[in-house]
Amino acid sequence: MSFILEARNIKKSFDGVVALSDANFTLNQGEICGLVGANGSGKTTFARIISGLIRPDSGRLYLYGSQIHLKSHHEAEKLEISMVHQNLSLIPEMTVWENINLGRESATPLGILKKEEALNRAEEALQELKVNISLYDRVSQLAPSDKQLLEIVKALSRSPKILILDEPTASLGFKQVEILFEKLNQLKNNRVSVIFISHRIWEITRICDRLVAFRNGKTVGEVDFRQQPRDERLIIPLITGKKENEDDKSIHEKRPYQSFDTHQIVLEVDNLSKKEKLYNVSFKIREGEIVGLGGLNGQGQEEILLILSGYLRKTSGKVKINNQEVFIKNSGQAIERGIFLVPGDRQKEGLFLNHNVFTNLIYPQVALKQQRFLLSLKEMRQAVNATIKTISLIPPDPRKLVSHLSGGNQQKVVIGKWLSLSPKILLLNDPTKGVDVETRRNLYKIIADLSSQGVSVLLYASDNEELIANCDRVLIVFEGQIVEEICGEGICEENLIACSLRIQ
Ligand SMILES: Nc1ncnc2c1ncn2[C@@H]1O[C@H](COP(=O)(O)OP(=O)(O)OP(=O)(O)O)[C@@H](O)[C@H]1O
């Protein structure tokens, strides 16, 4: 069979760091092929090579059976290869319609794109994915999920023959994921080939016809769902490198049910409102309890977390900690009270990208912890090395620049920063976005351990699976209000969807 795309023995290193040592990959026409692997296994590097953004050190690429040597992204686009980037490629200062049309001028005969034509194209492209944003909004003003959708719209508007999606659903809610999947199936029926990179195994088993797995920069296996069952147990061992019996705990194993009724109320939120965003939100969290914020994306979950962590001012309402009213005017005041936020946008809010892992991990300890004595360099190194181990950072090198880490490993640093500070209340804003399945399990184990030591957790996760597996209670947020509360065994996919869509 001749493949639409074939990659043989691709190798790529960055300053001595081997990202790909032997990547092999094939893609058939009109199929959706998953690309899976742990954080840092080389998926994005591979995707960037086949979309012409970087060149391999060695290896061969074939398109329709003929060898190609991509020298630029532009060349890949001419060959009808488009990529949806994990770290979005949009220009924040430009508008939605300008971003969609960016680079299109060169595809027109005179190198000029008429404004009216460009606006129409952009409008049509947005409608294709049912994206409800204005053509004239600046990208910097958009919510993360809208930015992600726009990135997808932009790639689709090029009518590619090969579409590469690098973690396209990481910031999307389930309804948006459904629309995307519908579109991908349509593309497949129109003989478009799709490479789909995701850490959400249920997405891979649901949408892909086949998958290829990378481990440490090498292709280690393939599963063809046309001949093999859509079973996560075939996939996870390929990612982790552990045999099935070493790894037979399901990633969705549910937190055992326990009652918190007798535990002390740590956080009490009473009639919290924020103009045009939140309306009379009230809830309590008890010591050691993990409470989820569910609902469709962008219903006010993020605003609740931002107000409690001092990044956003409330319009009215009360917040009590241990039965005492507190006034949180900035993030420093939240931290003083033991409230820590793990932010959603790691690039923007969570990291000093141009500093190394050591600086990023030690910063909160040095700058924020009220210590009587300064830590010695030796103690700092010990602390950082312990955190690197806990978060299984790859590579486990404190000197590595954070901007040179893979996306998932950057997120591990964001979480690692706060673990050493003994929080009282941990606010998590989609903490495992882009984190691989094994690390995600380890991180939730750390969060469960913290909760068993009495830390109270408020978790927003865009993936319902994470709420189901890890929460004692889930509050459903709809149009800025808490409209439902689901507890224990009642926290299941069916209930979460029904309550989020208000169809109960
Ligand atoms: N520009 C760069 N400079 C230095 N090292 C890099 C660079 N880009 C990638 N790497 C390294 O190459 C390896 C592979 O990274 P890559 O981003 O391809 O992994 P990935 O499988 O996509 O991971 P994730 O699932 O976390 O996104 C990692 O060790 C990463 O740190």
UniProtKB/TrEMBL annotation:
Entry keywords, A to Z: ATP-binding, Coiled coil, Nucleotide-binding, Repeat, Transport
Taxonomic superkingdom: Bacteria
Pfam family, one: ABC_tran
Domain ABC transporter: 5-241, 260-504
Residues forming coiled coils: 112-139
One Gene Ontology MF term: ATP hydrolysis activity
Name this protein carries in UniProt: Ribose import ATP-binding protein RbsA
Gene (name only): rbsA_7
